[in-house]
Amino acid sequence: MPSTKVLAIVVVVIIVVGGVGAWYLLSAPPATPNVIVMGTTDSVESSLDNAQAYDYFGWEIITALSSGLVEIKPGSSAGPNDIQPALAESWTVSDDGLIWDFDLRQGVTFDGVRPFNASVVKYTFDRNCNLTGNGLFEPDGPQLNIGYDTIIDNVTVLGEYEVRFYLKIPFSPFLQLMACAASYMVDPQYAPMDELVTYTEGDARASHPLGLGPYTLESWERVGGKDTQIVLRANPYYWNAAAGLPKTERIIIKMYSDSTSLAQAMSSGEIDIAYRQLTATQVEAFKEDPNVRVWEGIGAQIQYLCFNQRMAPLNNTDVRQAIAAALNRSHVCETVFHGFARPLYSIIPEGMAFHKPSFTIWGDANYTYTRQVLAKYGYDENNKLHLTLFYESSGHYPQSAEQAAVYKSDLEASGVISIDLQGLDWATYRAQRNAGTLQLYIYGWYPDYIDADNYAFLPFASWLNMGYNETYPAGGVQQHSLWLQARSTADPTQRESLYAQLQDLQAQECSVIPLWQSNTVAVSKLTVHGIVLDITVNWRHWLLYMGEPATTGP
Known about the structure:
Elements: E1 12-17, E2 20-25, E3 32-40, H1 56-65, E4 70-72, E5 83-85, E6 88-93, E7 99-104, E8 109-110, E9 114-115, H2 118-128, H3 142-146, H4 148-151, E10 152-159, E11 162-167, H5 174-178, E12 215-223, E13 226-234, E14 248-255, H6 259-268, E15 273-275, H7 280-287, E16 292-307, H8 317-326, H9 329-335, E17 341-343, H10 367-375, E18 385-392, H11 400-412, E19 417-424, H12 426-435, E20 440-445, H13 453-456, H14 474-488, H15 492-509, E21 512-525, E22 528-529, E23 545-546
Parallel strand pairs: 3-14, 3-15, 18-19, 18-20
Antiparallel strand pairs: 1-2, 4-5, 6-7, 7-11, 8-9, 10-11, 12-13, 13-14, 15-21, 16-20, 16-21, 17-21, 22-23
Helix pairs in contact: 8-10, 14-15
């Protein structure tokens, strides 16, 4: 979405229930009818219809109310071996990568009445991905923006519990795409083929088209278009209930207006968990509180520096490399984010399969290299390279002004670069990006589906309007070719090799420079267990439970 190591250690064990593999946290007790209260500053942006919802919190609730064909194993890097069965028990792919067959789980029902089968899968994708051609969800919707229509040709029912996907292109991260909330099932009884489902005051069931998840929607309260409270109740017909999921009967989610009120609610004991969006300062304070636990894990949000290569001298690769060497990623992570972000040395995040930190070749604050290179082009202390760094100023990205000030300080510390700062509100920022008037500018990304494929294209993304794309120059053409090969091969070893080559080339070309990667943080009472923070950034409500107070960190 145009937006390192996991600190919580997860112990996983496999059990067999009726021939079906199911995992759960080793220390977790059997499910008990209890309640957990969670606080957040988030709100559902548009709806809980996954043909429309395209926001983090909306997807969080969708994954609690529905299920996909497959899931990503918690605590993993979301690689090829980290996909586990969900509504599909098994699958096969043709040699050319264009046909995927799924054998579906039997005995699964909506509300204990209507069966889940291959027809439901076809209905879901026909509706949400507009495979019927009715145009209902154009020109927006996550499936359109993610490009489902460029990947899936059609979905065909082979039998009651057999479904086939015909693809337009070989697409190696297809299972990761199927694990995305936009691929989760809808209930045909509540999901009209020609109408989106939106919030209905006082009627939770009529407010979403979903089903088959670990929870049902007990209530959803809004005031003035903003959520005030959402209550989830355990689904007695959940297909994985035999594994003791969900672990908590009811989840009450309370919405707070800002981080201050959220932190106060956590400190006073009004809530059991605070998740999104506490400030770094607030989290630091909670780390000193013996009555709470601070959970930290790797995040998937990244930011990167873009060069408008239609403007000299940024069309010169040497100059871009010199700027890359002058940056000091640790500085911004420590001063602006207080350690709750980490330096990033590839456009593919750390903690994700196929990550390679190729940009480490330039170092951090490597001013000797910067001065040597720029001297070849006539830049020195008396004739500095003068650039304007643009940043978003309306809160779309976190603490952008503070970030920009640090980047200015670090680049100017080279002694041969001078930076002017220019802040623009998000609408103006995008408009000027499209007009090609930004010289040096900061952009961010949050993933749609959790795979290197969803990041690796950014250095040649045409919508960034850098004058560097898949058709120009030679480096862009080479990157695009490697990306296409990596997304079309089913061989993980070959994918790893291709992504390594791609990341090395991206570090040489420096069309964009990765800056930092977010951490994910939650604060809870000592009695809360089951929080898993990993590269998927999925919040798994169904794993949460209350137990004995923790005596050590997560």
